[in-house]
Amino acid sequence: MHLMAAGFSTMYLNERLVFGLAPPDIAGVFSQRLRWAMGALQILLRRNPLAAPGLTLAQSLLFFESCAYHFLAASTVLTSLAPVPFLFLGASPLQCDSLWEFTIAFGTFYALNRLMLFMAHRGTEGAMLEMWRGSQTWIWMSPNHLKAVFKVVLAESGLPWWLGGSSKAI
């Protein structure tokens, strides 16, 4: 971010440049992704890309999105938990007068979502598999991203007094 603000440029190279060892187990993957998410959130809270001098509007928005997308994990976790009240309490999370209303609303959302993902992956070898695996990974990693959000926000803002934090004098 600082290099681009200083005037350096970047370019896209369509080949895999990553070589080396991956985490050996799923616990290592979750630990690695937690560190990455926490680092991105710390950049967002300490060096807001939207206020960084020297970046174009597009660069600021792209850096902001790459740091802030971890907050979207909350909606994914809540959406994943939505069937639980229905199964145990019979309380529906949605209220539709007819099935066709839901079908049109959900179908439109889903079709546009997949279209945007397809456009973002165009030109990528194995784009359909990449989209499918990316969606699966996001759902399984969402609780980890949410954990990063809570850890970073609490660390940056400090614990409230009612959770054992100390009060600060102004």
TrEMBL record:
Key words, A-Z: Glycosyltransferase, Membrane, Transferase, Transmembrane, Transmembrane helix
GO cellular component, one term: membrane
Membrane-topology descriptor: Multi-pass membrane protein
InterPro entries documented for this protein: Glycosyltr_2/OpgH_subfam (IPR050321)
Main location: membrane
Compartment(s) of residence: Membrane
The keyword Membrane belongs to this UniProt entry's keyword annotation: yes
EC number annotated for this UniProt entry: 2.4.1.12
Keyword Transmembrane: yes
Top-rank lineage group of the source organism: Eukaryota
Bilayer-crossing regions: 67-88, 100-120
MF terms in GO: cellulose synthase (UDP-forming) activity
Protein name according to UniProt: Cellulose synthase (UDP-forming)
